[in-house]
Amino acid sequence: MGKSYFFVRTQIDNDRRSEKRKHGKKFNEEKMLKEIKNNCVECLKNPNCGEEKVFLVSSYHPQKWDFDRLQTAIMDHLPSIQKESLALSLRTHSKVVLKQKIKILKGRVWMVAAVSVEKRFGFWPSSKYIDEKPIRDIVDSYRSQMEFPAFGSEEFNMLTNKLRRRLRRFYISQNDDLPRWLKSFDRANKYKIKTYTKYIVTNKPLPFIYYFLNLILDEMETTALDIIDEMAKKACVVYDDSD
């Protein structure tokens, strides 16, 4: 047909459960997966379809088997605009999707910076101010894209105490001191933040916001990656116990 395609074999969790009960201690998951893939390739009877086009997945266990590889393959075959739309719409269950989201969000930081900067005349003619509200809003948006678990949720309570503390850092209320919060990310002490009422004052507003939003995204990424690892471990334990 001359078109790209992927063959997705679902419900691998059911196959694993059935084979494990059948073979007991002699069960070999790697061998089972190999046999399923070979069977799929044979049934397709297409010389252009090898194992790399076959994906073994389970919708109940997106952290296992070929789910990451499938998402990567789909995004690699899409034009850039469609790839961005897909990446931002996907659940952040995998490191592949997370890293793609971070890449997209970092690519948009300059646009966010431009919106956040306001030029005021009056008290200090021609001075540059940064409105705090857009920064708070974009941090909330980033947190939503990372799909950080809500406080008190079952997923949140499954995390280690260290991860919970790191997660709390990205929840800022209207009563929190935003300049002090931003300063906590600036370990290199690059900026001495000054404020006037609800505005942050700086001679270089665009580089200022670009710098801090990238720092925030970097720390969100490392936190989200650690959360994915932690949740994958928990899921594997629960999954193995259920067999």
From TrEMBL:
Coiled coil: none annotated. GO terms for molecular function: GTP binding; hydrolase activity. GO terms for cellular component: membrane. Keywords: GTP-binding, Hydrolase, Nucleotide-binding. Pfam families: IIGP (PF05049). Gene3D superfamilies: P-loop containing nucleotide triphosphate hydrolases. Belongs to the TRAFAC class dynamin-like GTPase superfamily. IRG family. PANTHER family: INTERFERON-INDUCIBLE GTPASE (PTHR32341), INTERFERON-INDUCIBLE GTPASE 5 (PTHR32341:SF10). This is Interferon-inducible GTPase 5-like. It comes from Paramuricea clavata (Red gorgonian).
